[in-house]
Design goal:
It is a single chain. The protein is of the alpha/beta class. The chain has 2 domains: 211 residues, no CATH class; 237 residues, Aminopeptidase (3-Layer(aba) Sandwich). The chain is built from 17 helices and 9 strands. Helix 2 packs across helix 9. It starts with a helix and ends with a helix. The relative contact order is 0.10. The structure holds zinc ion (ZN). The site of zinc ion has 5 residues, from loops.
Length: 523
C-alpha cells in the first residue's frame, strides 16, 4: 500500500513538473517598468502589423513597411529600405529549384561605442503568408524586436553597433535575408544574429538553433538569459529537419547567433486565425525576455563569444541550464558504470545477488523497449501518422494529446513490465500482448518492422518472465540495459544522450545508496 502511494505521488510529481516547465510567463502590461520587456507594449505594434494579411509585394505589405520605417525613425535608428530583386536556390531533392521576387528589407542602426567592432543584428521578417494576418509569424518577432531595440537604448550606448534587420519575402523562400547577406555592405559588419520566428501561435519559446561550435554561445545564453529555454536535443532535432528560417542564410554566411521560436497552437499558424487577439501573449513575453537578455549581453560586451566545441545541455529545474562539453558525457558514463559496479559488489557481499536475476531484469527492460516501440509503431499506423508525410499541422496540433497518451501508456508499460519481472506471473499474457500489438500492425498491410518488434517482445517475455526475480538482480539488469543504450547514444548522437544518462545517473546513485543502507542494517 505504501509503495503504491509512493508511486502515485512520484507520478503526480513528474507530470506536474512536466506541465509546469511548459508554462509561459505572465505577459507584462503596457505600463510595466520601462527597463523590462513588456508583451503589452509589443502588442501595440503587433496589432498594427497584423491588421490584415500582408504577403510580399502586396499593398498591405507596403503599409506595414511604411509603419515600421516610421517606428524605426522615431527610435533614432536612421532606417533605410534595401530594395532589390532577390533569388534563392533551394537544394531540395529530388528537384532543386530557384525562387525569386522583389523584396524591400528595412535596416536601422543603433551606433555603438566602437563602430568597427562586429555588430549585433536583431533579425525578424515583416511579410506574412497570403491569407493570414501573421500576428504570430512573424509580427510577434517584429513587435518583440522593436521592444528589444527600445530596451537596448534605455541601457546607454552599446559597445557595438546594434542593427535591426526586418527582412521581406521570408515566406516566399528567405528572399529578403538572401538579398541582404549577398548584397548589403552591412552584412560583412555583422558578428552575431538574434533571430525571432514562430512556428505556431503559442507555447513556450525555445532557443532551437545556433551557429557551429556553439560552446561559448550556449554558456552566454545559459548564464545571461532571463528564463532561458533550450536543449542540445532541440538543436539536434532541428538540424535534422527540413525547415528553414532567415537564420539559415546568416548561418550559411558563417555568422553565429541564437534563433528563437514557439510552436504551440498549430491552428493559429499561417492561418486566417493568426490574429493579434489569438496570439499567446505569454509566448511573446517568453521570447522577448530571452531575446532581450541575450541581446543585452552581446551588445554591451567588449568581445563576442568565440568558437568553442559544442556543449550538451538542457533545462534542469525551471530556468536552470546544465551544460558540459560532449567529451564529459564519457566521464558521466564512467561514473554511472562505477555506481552500478559498486552496487553489484555490495549486493554480492550481502548474498542477495544472482546472475539469473540480472538476466530476468535485462529481459524485463528489453521487453519494455520492444513492446513500447511496437505500441508506438502501431499507434502511428492506426492514426495515419505512419503512412507518410501529408500535413504536419494536424499532427502537431495534437502534440499535447500525443504527449499525454504516450506518457500514460509508457508509465503503464513500465509498471507492467516491472511487475511481470518481479512476480514472474503473467508470462503468457505479456507475450500475447506484445505479439498481438505486432500482428495488429499488419492490419494495414504486411509490416515487418511492427511484426518483428511485437513478436520480439513476446519472445523475450516467454524467456525472461516465469519465475520471480529478486529486486537487486532485476534492477542491475534494468540499469545495465539503460547503460548500454547510453553507451550507444554517446557514440552515435552525444548531444541527445543526456536524455538517458541524466535519469540513469540519478537511478544508479539511488539504487547504490539503498543497497548501502540495506547492507549496513543489522541482520
Ligand atoms: Zn516566419
Amino acid at each position: 500500500m505504501n509503495r503504491t502511494l509512493a508511486l502515485a505521488l512520484a507520478m503526480i510529481g513528474a507530470f506536474s513538473w512536466a506541465w509546469w516547465t511548459a508554462q509561459t510567463p505572465a505577459p507584462l502590461k503596457e505600463y510595466a517598468a520601462p527597463t523590462v520587456f513588456s508583451a503589452g507594449r509589443a502588442m501595440i505594434d503587433n496589432r498594427v502589423i497584423a491588421r490584415t494579411p500582408h504577403p510580399i509585394g502586396s499593398p498591405a505589405n507596403a503599409v506595414v513597411r511604411d509603419y515600421l520605417m516610421q517606428r524605426m525613425a522615431a527610435m533614432g535608428l536612421d532606417p533605410e529600405v534595401q530594395s532589390l530583386d532577390a533569388l534563392r536556390r533551394v537544394n531540395r531533392s529530388p528537384t532543386p529549384m530557384v525562387t525569386g521576387g522583389h523584396v524591400e528589407n528595412l535596416i536601422g542602426v543603433l551606433p555603438g561605442k566602437s563602430r568597427t567592432a562586429p555588430a549585433l543584428a536583431i533579425m525578424v521578417h515583416y511579410d506574412s503568408v497570403p491569407g493570414s494576418p501573421g500576428a504570430a509569424d512573424d509580427a510577434a518577432g517584429v513587435s518583440a524586436a522593436l521592444e528589444v531595440m527600445r530596451l537596448i537604448r534605455t541601457q546607454g550606448t552599446p559597445e557595438r553597433d546594434v542593427i535591426l534587420l526586418i527582412t521581406d519575402g521570408e515566406e516566399a523562400g528567405l528572399l529578403g535575408a538572401e538579398g541582404f547577406f549577398a548584397n548589403h555592405p552591412l552584412a560583412k559588419h555583422i558578428g552575431f544574429v538574434i533571430n525571432m520566428e514562430t512556428r505556431g501561435g503559442g507555447g513556450a519559446a525555445q532557443m532551437f538553433q545556433t551557429g557551429s561550435d556553439n560552446g561559448q554561445v550556449i554558456k552566454l545564453f545559459a548564464q545571461g538569459a532571463v528564463r532561458p529555454s533550450s536543449s542540445s536535443l532541440a538543436v539536434y532535432l532541428y538540424e535534422h529537419m527540413p525547415n528553414d528560417t532567415d537564420f539559415t542564410v546568416s548561418k550559411a554566411a558563417g555568422i553565429t547567433g541564437l534563433n528563437f521560436a514557439f510552436i504551440g497552437r498549430q491552428f493559429d499558424y499561417h492561418s486566417p486565425t493568426s490574429t493579434s487577439d489569438n496570439l499567446d501573449k505569454g509566448s511573446l513575453q517568453h521570447m522577448g525576455d530571452q531575446a532581450f537578455s541575450a541581446a543585452k549581453a552581446i551588445a554591451f560586451s567588449a568581445t563576442l563569444p568565440s568558437k568553442s566545441p559544442n556543449l550538451v545541455y538542457a533545462n534542469t529545474f525551471g530556468s536552470h541550464i546544465l551544460a558540459y562539453p560532449q567529451m564529459m558525457g564519457w566521464a558521466l558514463l564512467a561514473a554511472i558504470g562505477l555506481c552500478i559496479a559498486l552496487g553489484v559488489q555490495t549486493a554480492r557481499r550481502a548474498g542477495v545477488f544472482r546472475w539469473s536475476e540480472v538476466a530476468r531484469g535485462t529481459g524485463g527492460a528489453v521487453y519494455l523497449l520492444l513492446t513500447s516501440a511496437a505500441v508506438f509503431h502501431l499507434a502511428r499506423k492506426a492514426t495515419g501518422a505512419g503512412h507518410g508525410f501529408f500535413e504536419q499541422r494536424y499532427l502537431l496540433a495534437q502534440v499535447n494529446r500525443w504527449e499525454i497518451a504516450l506518457a500514460l501508456l509508457g508509465t503503464a508499460l513500465v509498471i507492467y513490465a516491472a511487475n511481470a519481472t518481479a512476480t514472474g506471473r503473467s508470462r503468457y499474457i505479456a507475450a500475447a500482448l506484445a505479439s498481438l500489438t505486432g500482428v495488429l500492425s499488419c492490419a494495414f498491410g504486411f509490416d515487418l518492422l511492427g511484426l518483428g518488434l511485437g513478436l520480439g517482445g513476446g519472445l523475450v517475455a516467454l524467456i525472461a518472465f516465469g519465475r520471480p526475480a529478486g529486486i537487486t538482480g532485476a534492477w542491475t539488469g534494468v540499469l545495465g540495459t539503460a547503460f548500454l543504450a547510453a553507451l550507444v547514444g554517446q557514440i552515435i548522437a552525444p548531444p541527445i544522450t543526456f536524455l538517458i544518462a541524466w535519469p540513469l545517473a540519478l537511478a544508479a546513485l539511488l539504487v547504490l545508496s539503498v543497497e548501502w543502507v540495506i547492507a549496513a542494517a543489522p541482520g
